[in-house]
Amino acid sequence: MNSFLTDYLNIKAIKIAEYLNKYEFVRPEYITTFGILLNANALMCLLNNNFPQFVFLFLTGYFCSILDKTYIDKYNYDSPSIKYYQRVAEWLKIVSLFVIFYRLYKNNIDYMIITIFILLLSLCNINFVINDYNPKNKCIEFWKKCIIKILNKDKLQYVSNFTNYFDESMTIIYLIIMMTYLYYK
User: Model confidence over 32-60: pLDDT tens digits?
Assistant: First the structure.
């Protein structure tokens, strides 16, 4: 079960993917590369103390990730190299954002922010394990067994109703809100 924001973004991504599929030169890896470039520009804006432009470019780069996944799913680009490139690009975006943001605002980060951040990412992870489970991934299999031991099936169903507000898209929005707080603190 997805949040309203994820459903909305997926609908828009499908429409854009249908439009882009009319042109033969548009490929999923180009969308991924464009997302990386948007993220790099967003980080440059953050370094230059232009926070509103950073937020806009970062969210646009995030939408490129959604568009890329939608484009691959809709038009059956089942290449392992494209999926690997997607994963590397996502990690590149996340790690570079963390490093730069932490270096700029480490004086503003306190234990409360760290606690909220860990809780937020934990809820996002639980949502991912419950909804996007893939039995081929052994780490996720181990994590799911741990969660099921802690929470029984009834509690897991209850938690899944709550964690749909902590899917990937909503977590990005929550992180942007935390970054905005830290920026203006």
Answer: 899 999 999 999 999 999 999 999 999 99
